[in-house]
């Protein structure tokens, strides 16, 4: 029987995940199917139970169900525990194992595809919601010199930093409001959802160091953050590479083989 996988979200019609996983499967000669499934709001657990009964091997999970997936998993890997959210479930004989591959995907996109090492860098993380929390540990694990978390509601940034401070003593960790930011960073990551509303962030042009990388987790259009970064001479990247790389991490977990994400990113970029 062909192995079956899916992505669950609401809405889900425009998900790129089926195309990405189809490309990975072709590339690595894996016999599997992967479809997009819309679960009703409040109906995530029932949808997953049905998929397990139907013999599915695993699912990716997207908005708004990453916390439901976290709750439903009977075992969590360390990154899922840190993120407090799950984007990949693996169905095993007697357990549902929950993972979060978002942060690994973003870090891999930055370090492998964009060829920028985070080690020793001054990193600014904009936002302190679910997306920021999901990448926090994977970024810290790369040993940057500085990690500043800036958020509109500063208390959330403070809480995020306080929680990890003891674990990463070699990183200069700080929490700030946007208008407190007045020094330069080598890597600036936009993990706010401001771009969804085309809202710009009230950050100083000073944050963009010479030849810095400005990385927006959004993809599909140039955001006000990307435009500001470009105007300040930054190298700018959107979140398409992160999307493909987080999928590659999930594929690796499920299939035990790492697909070559770069070729798929290039393909998705033109299609
Ligand atoms: P996600 O899962 O996308 O991270 P979230 O958990 O709701 O969604 O977090 C949204 C993040 O974007 C938060 O950091 C939020 O700031 P607040 O904590 O102050 O709410 C940030 N955000 C959303 N809209 C914003 C805007 N217009 N300007 C600045 N920050 C914004």
Short description:
With 271 residues, the chain is of the alpha/beta class. Helices cover 38% and strands 23% of the residues.
> Which geometry do the CA atoms define?
globular
Q: What do we call the CATH topology of the largest domain?
A: Rossmann fold
Q: Please indicate the count of domains.
A: 2
Which strand order does the major sheet show?
2-1-3-5-6-4
CATH superfamily placement of the largest domain: NAD(P)-binding Rossmann-like Domain
Detailed description of the structure:
This protein has 10 helices and 12 strands. The protein is of the alpha/beta class. The protein has 2 domains: 127 residues, 3-Layer(aba) Sandwich (Rossmann fold); 136 residues, Rossmann fold (3-Layer(aba) Sandwich), CATH 3.40.50.720. The strands form 2 sheets. A 6-stranded mixed β-sheet has the order 2-1-3-5-6-4, sandwiched between helices. It has a 6-stranded parallel β-sheet with strand order 9-8-7-10-11-12, sandwiched between helices. α8 links the parallel β11 and β12. The chain is globular, with a radius of gyration of 18 Å. The mean pLDDT is 97. It binds 2'-monophosphoadenosine-5'-diphosphate. The site of 2'-monophosphoadenosine-5'-diphosphate has 15 residues, from α6.
């Amino acid at each position: 029987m062909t192995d079956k996988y899916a992505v669950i979200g609401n809405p889900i019609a425009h998900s790129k995940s089926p195309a990405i996983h189809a490309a990975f499967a072709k590339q690595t000669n894996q016999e599997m199917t992967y479809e997009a499934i819309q679960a009703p709001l409040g109906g995530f657990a029932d949808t997953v139970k049905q998929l397990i009964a139907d013999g599915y091997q695993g699912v990716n999970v997207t908005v708004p169900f990453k916390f439901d997936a976290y709750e439903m998993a009977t075992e969590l890997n360390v990154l899922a525990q840190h993120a407090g959210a799950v984007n990949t479930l693996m169905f095993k004989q007697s357990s549902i194992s929950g993972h979060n591959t978002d942060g690994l995907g973003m870090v891999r996109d930055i370090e492998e595809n964009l060829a920028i090492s985070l080690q020793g860098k001054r990193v600014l993380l904009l936002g302190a919601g679910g997306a920021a929390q999901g990448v926090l540990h994977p970024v810290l694990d790369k040993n940057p010199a500085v990690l500043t978390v800036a958020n509109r509601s500063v208390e959330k940034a403070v809480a995020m930093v306080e929680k990890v401070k003891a674990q990463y003593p070699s990183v200069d960790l700080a929490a700030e409001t946007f208008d407190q930011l007045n020094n330069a960073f080598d890597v600036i990551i936009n993990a706010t959802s401001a771009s969804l509303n085309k809202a710009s962030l009230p950050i100083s042009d000073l944050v963009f160091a010479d030849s810095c990388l400005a990385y927006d987790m959004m993809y599909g259009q140039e955001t006000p953050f990307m435009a500001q970064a470009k105007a300040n001479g930054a190298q700018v990247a959107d979140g398409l590479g992160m999307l493909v790389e987080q999928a590659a991490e999930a594929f690796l977990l499920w299939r035990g083989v790492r697909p070559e994400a770069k070729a798929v990113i290039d393909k998705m970029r033109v299609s």
